[in-house]
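Re: [help] complex structure
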Amino acid sequence: MSWFSLLFGPTGWGPLLLKGTVITVLLSFTTVPFGFGGGLLLAVLKLSKNRAVRIACDAYTTFFRGIPDLLSLFIVYFGLQSLLNMSAQFFGDAWRIEMNAFVAGVIALSVVVAAYSSEVWVASLKAVPAGQSEAAKSLGLHPKQVFFLIVLPQLGRVALPGLGNIWTILVKDTSLISTLAVMDLLRASSEASRATTRPLLFYSAAAAIYLIFSIVSGVGQAYLERRSNQGYA
Amino acid sequence: MLDTLQSFAGFVVNIDLLSTYGYRLLLGLQITAEVVLISCSLGFVLAYPLSRARMSKNVFISSPALAYVTFFRGTPLLCQLYLVYYGAGEFRPFFQSIDLWWFFRDAFYCCIFAFTLNTCAYQSEILRGAIQSVPKGQIEAARALGLSGYSIARYVVFPQALLVALRPLGNELIGIIKASALAAIVTLLDLMGQTRFVFAKTFDFSIYLYSAIIYLAITQAISRLWNWMELLLSRHLIAGRPATMVLGPGARQGQAALDPLRAET
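Output below.
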């Protein structure tokens, strides 16, 4: 069969690849709030006055930045599974929960992305001049208000380039989730190439889709950076 | 209660497992080291011509280089690995006819091939950023003094550029070590592959933690070594180390800090 009908014909594999693409995009976007949010939380804790908290957070970051992303995913995935099994032993069968592969994938990716992004957040937290929060404090703002009204709005602009880099890493890392039985883009193309014995065609298609995704996000990042830098010249 | 505690302790530490299967991890470590060292050094050799091509004023030279770099930085390494490993099978008669099938049949060589192509793209961008970070005035001054093209490169550009490139190149080495775990997915028994093998045999989770400790030790050691090298090599700079890069073993975002045209991927 021609490559065209294999992809777009009535019995073609296009729809499966499309579904896989949707899963990949969903995985990436679902991970962002947890991964980047978790990273911000880590960053705030890393700047805390409590030494034990600082050490624990640094250890977390060092660990997950120092081992392969694939290994992190396996550790989180199988670790969660074993913990769930153990809690079922301890608390009874009501705790015997089947882990949804997509949810597990999001958790695993978030753990990794949180570790990566916490460094970016730390750098940008330090980039906001201390005078800002001191001024806010002296005006009588509550520490929470200082953080959410004064510091946080200024973080985005500084953090954006670093977070953009992590976003491109994240998009590519979603392909690792295909090894955990999530039907993402890469796994969809694996299925298609196994069924048709045309791996070159389907993996090229997957590569093309990933490439488009990363080029589009590159353009999006450039736009966001330009926008957030308006007035800072 | 005690049982649960014991099972939790066994979840984290299991000495028996290590004495039975530890040698497998070491065997895997050797494969990982081979793959990483070969592909990183080949990638480095190929990266320099690629970076020159990327900086070329001739569009017919620079745009293929840009396309190459964009492709390899914009798609997942796992996808590239599948393309090489499974895609080569489609050309089997062809590879057999030119007597290269032994190369693409073997997961080991396929991994080296894919990783080399990939790291070459990243390293060429690092080199390009570093070379372009050398102020133009220095090259003009050297030319005005009558230095030859070779002397300018050897005595003016490279000593400064390589110092800038050092940190991101170290990050790239760490990145490749971490990325080499993907070899396990195409059946290679590297450190990750052996880990998965042992896990499939014993269903003992702690083997993943042992493997993680080995990876962590290696990446940390390299990170420390690089800090030391950077200190040593930049001690003539009054202001200290090049301030552009402050990333630890944070994988492959290092070059971005240098790259003035960061938007293309």
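Residues 67 and 207 of chain A are 25 Å apart (CA to CA).
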